[in-house]
Specification:
Length: 242
């Protein structure tokens, strides 16, 4: 068996982050434990969701599921110290990578002015044979591009007309759920908050139609990363610098 590369400690000499994901609950499937650590350090963290997750519950009409999943996301975010939760209202399940999505994320970056951007895996797989869904790929790649778009006044000049000045302060992009992680953070003291955050997605979890234990799932994954990183529980990221 090929030995996996060592995971490096993620630098935490930064002050603010914008977390950009496709759906409510995407952050809670691992990254929220790291968010809890960061907010405990006094870092400012905001969430931006491309959709309201309205197509995520098979037994519930989208018009009912969307508001419910928004509420679950806000509740889960609050448990890890995040109060700013925003939704772009792209259509769940058919999010398209393109200029509109890049512009929407760029607008949010200019508004929040983070120095760190966190997004999800935009590769075709999670590292094995399980393929990654289209919304994740589209949003992750658009967020990566928007990190640079936001600093160029000649890209999406209409944002200037809206009063959003360029922001080129994003210095790094962290890819959560990457199949080629480079860094990790110790979340041993924050895994309980991460679990509680995911457990707030009660309607979504119930709608999965199968037994799913958030506590077991998150601890199993965080323990596997922790063994590689040298602690009880850890969350991994791929670090990209701009």
């Amino acid at each position: 068996m090929t030995e996996q590369p060592k995971l490096l400690p993620l630098p935490e000499d930064w002050n603010s982050a914008l977390v950009v994901m496709a759906h409510p609950d995407d952050i809670e499937y691992g990254a929220a434990s790291a968010v809890a650590r960061w907010t405990s350090q006094g870092k400012r963290v905001a969430y931006l969701l491309a959709t309201r997750g309205e197509a995520g519950i098979d037994v519930m009409e989208p018009r009912e599921a969307g508001p419910l999943r928004e509420d679950e996301e806000r509740s889960g975010a609050a448990l890890v110290g995040v109060q700013a939760v925003e939704f772009l209202n792209h259509t769940d399940g058919v999010v398209e990578y393109g200029l509109l999505l890049r512009r929407d994320i760029s607008r949010a970056i200019r508004q929040h002015r983070p120095d760190t951007l966190v997004t999800g895996n935009f590769e075709t797989t999670w590292g094995g044979t399980s393929f990654n869904m289209a919304d994740h790929r589209a949003v992750g790649l658009a967020a990566l591009d928007a990190a640079r778009d936001a600093g160029n006044r000649w890209i999406f000049p209409e944002l200037l007309d809206e009063g959003h000045q360029p922001w080129n302060g994003v210095r790094r992009v962290l890819i959560a759920g990457s199949n080629a992680p480079t860094h990790a953070v110790d979340v041993t003291d924050f895994i309980d908050q991460g679990v509680a955050s995911l457990e707030e997605h009660r309607a979504y979890i119930a709608g999965l139609g199968q037994d799913f234990d958030p506590d077991f799932f998150l601890r199993m994954n965080a323990n596997a990363v922790g063994e590689r990183f040298g602690c009880d529980y850890a969350v991994s990221f791929r670090l990209l610098e701009i």
